[in-house]
Amino acid sequence: MIPQYRQQPLRPPDEEFSPQMVVPSSIELFNFYRLTLAQCAKLSTGARLVELSSVFAKYLDQYAQQVLLFYVSERPSGQTPSKSPQLEDSTLVLNTADYCFSTCTQLEEKIKSRIDEGFKANIDLQSQADAFMGIASATVRALVRRVEVDIEPTWREMRNTGWSKMESVGDQSSWVTEMIKLIKRRAAEVLIMLHKQQYARAFCDNLVDSVVNAFIVNIFQCKPVSEVGAEQMLLDSYAMKKGLEDLLSIKAPQNTPSPAGYIRRVNQSMSRLDPILKTLQVRPSPPEALVQAYLIHIADKSDTNFRKILDLKGLRKQDQSHLIELFQAHRASPRNEKLPQSSALLAPLAATGLHAAGGPTIASGTGNLSTAATLSTANLPARFDPSTFGSAIMNAARDGVDRLGTPNLGGSSTPSQTLSSGAMSPPTTTTQQPSRSSFEVVSPAAAAMGATNLNENLRNIGKFFKRDIGGFGGRFGSGSTKPAADEAG
Question: Are 197 and 473 within 8 A, CB to CB?
Fold first, then answer.
């Protein structure tokens, strides 16, 4: 059934799209499970039902990985190497992942109601439910990517601005005005498709994180930045914050404000820019002022990070020596002994590299499901290569990349700045595995191990995503999943 489902179109060609639709094969799969459960329960309510639940679990894992994840991965498209999923396709996958999450829980409850008391503890489909929530997380990250791709030209305009030559602060920069317009236009297209509030909130939260992380990365690509230039950037960041605050109310009736919790979320995320820009506003003379500003605002002991600030201000290497010595002396004082070795404020820089053309690059596609973050980037790529979209999202799940800002799953975590609303912290560095050759022979055991690891990482990603968006209100599986109760039997 699974290979057949993978070959089917997301929806029948003659059926009009609706934002509440789910992929028909998901309903068919659970309907088949319902009938099979009813028949098996007539023959046995003991160990055989436990075995049946294991079979259900196996193919639910395959459906998540081989069907739904496949739909939001790249596809061969003739003229071009691949194509990224369309908005309608992503919406269908998100709805279906939500439906499957809900129906997995109902199916588990239905099996427990039929099975003998002594076997109930052996029935558990929550791992499969979490894997579907991992698919939902990956899909939200893919929706954020759509906006990231659109606003890349405005980041380029920011990088090309002469920040060292400004003599006074004016109105908000033209690149900010254009970026806000593009963000709102693309976000409106996405939000009108998301009929469940918790997914709309997750999309906006991750988009905010994406913009903030990209802003930090691009600040460090604008060197040199004068004190006046830093002040202009700070003004631009306030204009950006105001634009982002309006995102969640785009599809609401006119003059409806965004929820207070979301406004706080935006303020918390955007506040990561202030310490950097306020430090840049301090002149290097007297040197103690700049050192103290760094220790107050950036607040870490890192020589490397301090040098980045000096480089960004355009100070020559020979002029940096005295400042670095002074910094080392001040950081050793008792009042600074509790400072961390490296500030989480500059964590987005760890995920970037320098493109040949001088612009920042971060793992493209959804290869970094973290802030991307959380998936974003979320955590963020400046140049989009559609040919890597699907392989990146698969690698993210295989490698255990964290969901939009949570610590790396199954591995050591880097310092992160987690916000109270389920915020996604800055992206961590991700090492992507090289793709296998189409002609490489993979043993059945190795293939099975890879599938197991992929599903396990999807589950872990789903657990974190479920925890975060669970705080936004609403219920998983409700609204678009009306058939769920029937399908579970």
Answer: yes
The larger pLDDT score, comparing residue 413 to residue 335, is at: 335
Query: Mutual orientation of helices 197-219 and 444-469 as an angle, nearest 10°?
Result: 100
Q: What are phi and psi of 23, to 5 degrees?
A: -65, 125
Helix axes 317-331, 303-312, angle to 10 degrees: 140
State pLDDT tens for residues 23-35: 999 999 999 999 9
Residue with tokens 């997750």: 202
Q: Contacts from 112-121 at CB under 8 Å and sequence distance 24+?
A: 114/37, 114/41, 114/45, 114/49, 115/41, 115/45, 115/46, 115/49, 115/50, 116/45, 116/46, 118/46, 119/46, 119/47, 119/49, 119/50
Among 36-40, 312-316, 396-400, the range scoring the smallest mean pLDDT is 396-400
Residue pLDDT, tens place only, 103-152: 999 999 999 999 999 999 999 999 999 999 999 999 999 999 999 999 99
Q: Is a pLDDT exceeding 60 seen at residue 49? A: yes
Q: Is residue 95 predicted with pLDDT exceeding 70?
A: yes
The rounded distance, in Å, linking the Cα atoms of 381 and 293 is 30
Report d(CA 1, CA 347) in Å as an integer: 45
β-sheet bridge partners, residue 353: 361
Say which residue the tokens 């990224």 belong to. Answer: 84
Spatial CA neighbour of 202 closest among 384, 424, 21, 407: 424
What pLDDT score was predicted for residue 195? 87
Assigned token pair, 18: 């609706």
* Cβ contact 239:176 at 8 Å: yes
